[in-house]
Amino acid sequence: MSSESQPNHSLSAADRIAQSLRDEILGGGLPAGSPLRQDAIAERFGVSHIPVREALRHLSAQGLVTLRPNRGATVSDLSPEEARELLEIRCVLETQAVRWALPLADADIFARADRALKDSERTDDVARWMELNWRFHSTLYERAARPRLSTMIETLDARIDRFIRVLITGSDYRKQAQAEHRAILAAYKVRNANAVVSLLEQHMTETSRLLTELLQKYRAE
Predict the structure, then answer these.
(1) Domain span at residue 46?
(2) Residue 119, class by beta-carbon neighbours within 10 Å (0-12 exposed, 13-18 middle, 19+ buried)?
(3) Cβ-contact 63, 130 below 8 angstroms
(4) Are 85 and 176 part of one and the same domain?
(5) For residues 44 and 220, what is the distance between their CA atoms, to the nearest angstrom?
(6) Do 18 and 97 sit in the same domain of this protein?
(7) How many whole angstroms separate alpha carbon 124 and alpha carbon 114?
(8) Residue 74 DSSP label
């Protein structure tokens, strides 16, 4: 059943609306450029315009929705320039976080990163793979003990999520990413910080290249 027919009462109305619309955008049900009319959304969820506006502002902060004064809201375009910049920023933050975390990593961290990687190799579900991909990356720098930095990276990940889903469905990205993840984890387990950072940089640079090429191809069609 749909999320609006079985609401999660632990969430506010705005959160429920944002979650449902986010799932539709990420799943392709609401393609880039789709109008998001407040009247229709309010009627669909049985709420006033106030939580709808709050939900749209939240999605705008995640880069999923574009708000234009007097023109309403639309699903944001998939810009290759934005994808490249987001991945560049994430690379800078994540590599520094790993440098701080690696000296403090223990057997539990190694085991959880390994488990996330193995579980991601077993699933064919895109949403599940995305969840495990995030779990793998975030486990690597968990011991950095920099909660604000972790929040910044998580915010970037939420914005990058949509782009990576496009890459997964439009290419054989997962197979390549898994191989790169295995190399990163191998270097991590022997605490070779320079190798881990170098491999992370290569991983994100290659992801950026593949994604930019794919989005430019879609733009030209």
Answers:
(1) 13-75
(2) middle
(3) no
(4) yes
(5) 35
(6) no
(7) 18
(8) E
